[in-house]
Amino acid sequence: MGIPHRVVYWNVPGHAWMYLPFAILVLVFVYGVWRRWRVWALGRRVQLRPWRPRLRRLLSHAGLQTRVVRRPLQGYAHLALAVAFGLLFIGTCVVALKADFGLPVMQGAFYLWFESATLDAAGLAGIVALAVFLIRRYGLRPWALGREPADFLVPFTLLIILITGFVLQSLRIYATHDPWGAYSFVGYGLSRLYADMHLGIPAALIIHRSLWWFHLLLAFSFLGAIPYSKLFHLFMAPVAILLSDPAGATRLETPDLEHAERLGVNMLSDLTVKDLVDLDACTECGRCEEVCPATASGKPLSPKKVILDLREHAHLRPQEPLTATIKDETLFACTTCRACMEACPVDIEHVPKIVGMRRFRVMEEGELPAGLAEAVQGIEERGHPFRGAQASRTTWLEGLPLKEWQPGESCETLLWVGCAGAFDPRAQKVARALAQLLLAMGEDVKVLGRRESCTGDPARRAGQEYLYQMQAEANVKTLTEVAPRRIVTMCPHCLHQLGDEYRAFGADFEVVHHSEYLQQALVTGRLRAAAGGRRITYHDPCYLGRYEGVFAAPREVLRTAGGELVEMAHHGPDSFCCGAGGGWAFREEGPPRVNRLRAKEAVATGAELVATGCPFCLSMLTDGVKAEGGGEVQDIAEILWAQLAPEVVSESGRE
Amino acid sequence: MRIICFLKAILDPEAPPGAIRFAGKVESGEVATVLGPFEGNALELSVQIAQASAGGFVAVAMGDAAQDIALRKALALGAERAVRVDAPAGFQDPLAVARRLKAAAEEAGGADVYVFGRQAGDWDMGVTAGLFAGLMDLPFAPLVQHAEVVGANLRLRREIAGGYEESLRVAPLVVSVTNGPLTLMRLPKVKDVMLANRKPIDVLQAAAEPSLEIAEIAQAQVTRQGRMITGDAAQQAAGLAAELRRFLVAGGGN
Ligand code: SF4
Ligand code: SF4
Predict the structure, then answer these.
(1) Does A348 contact ligand 2 (Cβ within 6 A)?
(2) Disulfide check for A635: which of A108, A282, A430, B117 has CB 3.0–4.6 Å away?
(3) pLDDT grade, residue A562 (50/70/90)?
(4) Same domain, A644 and A538
(5) Is B115 a member of any domain?
C-alpha cells in the first residue's frame, strides 16, 4: 500500500485548462473589489490608534464570532460554516501546493487525518449549517430575513458545491478501490452505495470527469460572485469590525464647524471610510431591524434598510446627495437607542450615520420636525427644551435645605438635576427625592440653580450640532469654575454628556449616575433602607445601559429597597427603548407608540411597580403603563427614599 | 420689492409666573430676551415676499443692545442690513416709536412694503404699525397671514369669521402680520447663523421725541377665590346654582 496518499487531479486529463476559468475568476474578482474600493476611497480617514482594543474586538467579534452566536441556532450554524470553509480553504491550498509546486504534502498521517477525515467532517458540518439556514429562512420565515432570489441562490449554490465535492470523492474512492478511502468517511459511505447499485467503472469515470468540471466551474462562479453580493461580508465584516470604535461609537464625532466645507453628511465623501466599509459588510441578517423600536412601531425606518439603501446609493449614484435616498421621515424616526448597533454581529455603526445626515438637514437646510424644532429653539433661547414650563431652575428645590453654589465656593458633590428634573413636574419629584437622599447621607451637596443650562444633548441628537457645541462650551466653562469633586446626576443623557461627550471640549469630571451613587451608599452603610415587599420590574434606559454600561447598580438598589425583581422580555443590553430618545420626547408620535410597546412588556411581567432611572423614560412609561392598565412607575430614587430606614430619615425629615 | 421689517425682542413670554416682577418698574431677573412671536411671523413674511419678488429686506429694531438677537435672526434669514435705533430698554410710547421708526425707514431709503408684527408680545398695544402708516401717509393692511406677489403689488390674506379675506393691495403699503400656518418662522440655516454673527449692526441715534412715560407699574394681586363644591351630584348641582346666583347678585356677571 505504501505511504497513504491520493493522486491529485485523478481522472481529469485536461485539468490544466482550469487555469483559463481561474484567470477569468481573478479578473472578475479584482474588478468587483476595485468597484467597491472606489467608494471606500471617497471616505474620510479614521483614527485607528490605539490598535490593541481594536485587535481584541476583531478577535472576539470576527474570529470567535461572539456576537453572531448570541442567537444560538443561526449563530452556531454560521460559526460552523465559517470554520468548515476555513478548513476546506486550507485543504485546497494544500492540494495546490502538491499539484502546482510538487511539495510532498498530500501524504502520510496528515493526508489521512486532515485532508481526508477532518475535511470530510468540515464538509458535513457545512451541509448541516446550510440546511439550518435554508430551513430557517424558508421554513420558519422570520420577518426580518429577506427572501430575494439571491438569498436562496447563495446557500443553495454552496450546498451544491459541497454535495458535488462529496460525490466526486466517493466516485474516486469507488473507481480506484482507494485503500485509505475509509478515512474520507462521507465519500467512503457513498462509494459503498455504488457497489450496491452495480455502477460500472467506465460510467463512474465519465460521471466523475464531467462532475469535476461542473464542481470546479460552480465553485469559481461562486467565488467570482463574492464582491458583487452580500457574500462580500466574508472579507468586509472583519474590516468593519476592525474599523469600528472599540467604545461602541457612543460618543458622536465633534466636527470643527467653523472650518467645515459642509455641515453634516450629504455626500458619500462626508462619510468616513468606516461608514462606507459598513455598507459592504452588512450581512443582511436583519438583527438590527428586529430590535429597532422605530421599525416595531411602524415608522418608516429600518436600520438594515438604511444600510442597504446607502449601499445601493454608493454603487448606483455615488455623485448624488444622500437626501435623494434617505428621506426625513426615516432620518428623524430614529430614537438613537443604539439597539441596532448592539445587535449587529459585524459592528456596523448606524447611529453616527443617521445623526450625520440629520446634521446636514438641520444645519445646512434648516429642516427639523415640528416639536423638535420648538424644543431646540427653547434650548437656544432659554437654555432648556421644555416649552411652556411653569417652573424656574430652582422651583423644584423650594423648601429643601439645599444650597446653590456661589462663585468662590468649593463644591464637594454637585447635584446636576438636568432640565427634566427642573422643569418637568413629574421629574421634579425625583429630583427632590434624590436631593433628600443626598442630604440624608450628610453629603455637602450643592446645585447650580440658574447657572445650570441644558447639556445640549437633545440638540446634538437632533442634528443641531452648532447649538450643542455652544451649550457644551458654556457648561464646561461653568463646571471648570465650580470644580466639583464629583457630579451626581439623575439624567442618563446628562451623564453621557458631562462624563463622556464633553471630553471633546476638555472636560474631565467625575460624573456618576444616581443609581450608582446610591448603590455605593447602601453598600457602605451611609444609607440604610427597609426591605420592600413589592414585585418590581426595571426598565434599562438606553443612555444608562447601552450607552454608559450601567446595568447592575439600579438593580442592586431595587433588590435592597424594592422587593422581588422580575425582568422584562428585553432587558440589560437588549433593553427596548421607551421612545423618548433622539428628540422624540418633544414630538407628537402617532400610534402605535413605542412607549406602549415597552409598557406592554412591563405589564406582562405582572410587576406592581415599574422602576427606571431616567426622567424621560419615567414620563414615557408613566403614560404607557397607565394606558396598558399597569401599576405605578417610579424612579429608583423615589423608591429608595420611601424605604429609607426611619433613623436616617428622622434626621432630615421625610416629605 | 424692497421691504423693511420692524422687529422687537421682548422678555420671554414663556417665563414662568412670578419670574418677571413689577415693583415700580419691570424687574426681569434672569428671564431671557427672545424675538417677539408676531415679529417672528413678520420676519417670515418678509423673507417670503423678498424671495418671491427677487427683492431684499432690511431689518430695523429699536432699543438697547438686547435687541441685537432679533436683528441677528433677521440677518441669518437673509436680511441685507440690520439697523438698531438706539433707545433705552423698557416701555416706549408708541407714537414716539413710530416717529423714530419713520426716521430710520427714511434713512434706509424707504421701501415698497413695511412689515410689522401684529403687536409686541410684551406691552400688547398693537398700535405702532397703524401709527407708522399714518405718519407715512400709506395704506395699512393689518393682521396679514399670507402674501402673494402679483407684479408690483401684493395679494394679502387674513382670517375673518368663518373663512379668509383676500385683497389686492397696491404698494407702497404697511402690513402687520399675525400667526398662521404660513407665517410660522422658518429655522435659519446654521451656516447663515454663523455668518450673521459676524455681520455688523448699524446703530442709529434717535432724535428726542415727546413721549409718554410710565410713572409706576404694579404687580397684579393674585387672589384665590375658588371653592370646592362637594357632595353627591345633586348636592353639587344645587351648590353650583347657589354660587352662581350669589355671583350674579354681587354684580360679577354684568
Ligand atoms: S438607534 Fe434605535 S431607533 Fe435608531 S435605527 Fe437603531 S434601533 Fe432603530
Ligand atoms: S446592519 Fe448588521 S444587524 Fe443589520 S442587517 Fe446588516 S449585518 Fe445584520
Answers:
(1) yes
(2) A430
(3) confident
(4) yes
(5) yes
